[in-house]
Design a protein that fits this description.
alpha+beta; Immunoglobulin-like; 4-stranded antiparallel sheet; 3-stranded antiparallel sheet; about 120 residues
């Protein structure tokens, strides 16, 4: 009986949280990824130029890196780009890739950087 009660409370809580989250969801998720056999494709659906950085998750935990904005990691409005898996540090199927993106110059604070993960 306790297990059923706990299950119901958790279920109602999760449903409530997901509904509230959808009501207040910001529209900053304008970069999407498409996983392909030979590469990772990034698509910018916004009207703004964004910059990106993609790195394999285990490598990200060990590496020191600085997010920079340059022509090499620029994604123009309403465009896409392809990144080879080797550029992310990924060596095998199943690797998790962290994709970070931001607008304008190099971000000055963490809240200016959006991110998501994809599985190769």
């Amino acid at each position: 009986m306790r297990a059923i009660f706990l299950f119901l409370i958790i279920t109602v809580g999760l449903i409530s949280t997901s509904c509230v989250g959808n009501l207040f969801q910001d529209n900053d998720d304008f970069v999407k990824a498409k996983v392909e056999t030979e590469q990772l494709s990034l698509i910018n659906f916004s009207s703004d130029t964004v910059y990106y950085f993609a790195i394999e998750s285990e490598l990200a935990a060990r590496a020191n890196y600085v997010l920079r904005s340059s022509e090499q990691n620029q994604l123009l409005p309403k465009s896409n780009t392809a990144i080879s898996w080797s550029q992310t540090g990924s060596s095998k199927s199943g690797d998790k890739i962290i994709v970070m993106y931001w607008k304008g110059d190099a971000p000055k604070a963490d809240e200016e950087v959006k991110s998501f993960t994809v599985k190769r």
